[in-house]
Design brief:
Elements (H helix, E strand, L loop, with lengths): L22 E3 L10 E3 L7 H4 L13
Antiparallel strand pairs: 1-2
Protein name: Sulfoxide reductase catalytic subunit YedY
């Protein structure tokens, strides 16, 4: 689908058209304790995989 870019799942700075990517819900989670946290770049593996994306515009090529 064109609405959800390839890198959108790993780039918290680019929101999905219908929701924010800045926060994620961790499991277990409930209605009264949603267990939210800030989304980390590359799902927390930036140190390990960040060099693979060097030079890419992850806002444009998301």
């Amino acid at each position: 689908s064109n609405e959800y870019g390839f890198y959108a799942n790993v780039n918290p700075m680019v929101d999905h058209p219908r929701w924010t990517q800045a926060r994620e819900r961790r499991l277990p989670s409930g209605l009264f304790s949603p267990n939210l946290r800030e989304t980390k770049m590359f799902n927390g593996y930036e140190e390990e995989v960040g060099s693979l994306y060097a030079g890419m515009n992850l806002r444009k090529d998301y």
